Amino acid sequence: MTPKTTPVRVWDLPTRLFHWPLVVLVVVAWLTAGEQMNIHRYSGYAIIGLLVFRLYWGVFGGSTARFSSFVRGPGAVLAYVRNWRTAPLVAGHNPLGALSVLLLIGLLIVQVGLGLFAIDVNGIESGPLAQHITYEAGRWVSEVHELNFRFLQAAIALHLLAIAVYLLGKRRNLITPMITGQDAVAGLQGELQPAPLWRLAVGVVLSALVVALIAQAG
Ligand code: HEM
Ligand code: HEM
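A: This is the predicted complex of the input protein with protoporphyrin IX containing FE.
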């Protein structure tokens, strides 16, 4: 096991409260797709709210949640991969993990965005914005919505595989910090610089407004 030391704060509460409900809601959207469409749409709205919040938090949130703190160019990613075993441990996403974060968030945005315009084959079940496009376009969107879900599934599988590789190959537990917000691994550089509470309040109101606007359009 990697040596332990005094725990350091690495993830703020909003980032953790984004992640775990997101996991539950994506599973709900998955299980209800094509079956219980009301629940499917409601879970989709909730995911939209989480994604709007995460984009906002990526700019105004705690230091380790900010995109500017973890999005790196190809050079930094390659250097990290080359020195995978010896690379310094930094609070927040490492350059490679950051890629998978962007991939997951990107695919989720495409997924919910397409869902808003999707129309089922009978034209009965549809997303709240589907009325603005033709049936044929809505069917095409539905096909891409389904295809993109396969990519999302693959990205989630990769995400879980990476976490397992860190746990088993590097003896580094990434899961506990995403739950408790703290990491006790020895040699960790940096620490979370939290954002003020009012920024959280603004983000929650903003996300709720976007969801309300989309939902009432349906
Ligand atoms: C991460 C979130 C989502 C996931 C994983 C997801 C997944 C899926 C999948 C796999 C299907 C195909 C079901 C089938 O035909 O067997 C589907 C259909 C559908 N989804 Fe989503 N979806 C998500 C979000 C949304 C959202 C936000 C909306 C709209 C508010 C939406 C609306 C629809 C509609 C209307 C269909 C029916 C299309 C058809 O039957 O071809 N989805 N979804
Ligand atoms: C539907 C399935 C999942 C999705 C869509 C998902 C998505 C994400 C996203 C978007 C992030 C970036 C967090 C942020 O910066 O805001 C993340 C990080 C993380 N996720 Fe997941 N996740 C899923 C399932 C899981 C599961 C089941 C686990 C635990 C076994 C897990 C463990 C983690 C951990 C440990 C991190 C932090 C990685 C790091 O230290 O860089 N995820 N996930």
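The first strand starts at residue 4 and ends at 9. The longest helix spans residues 135-169.
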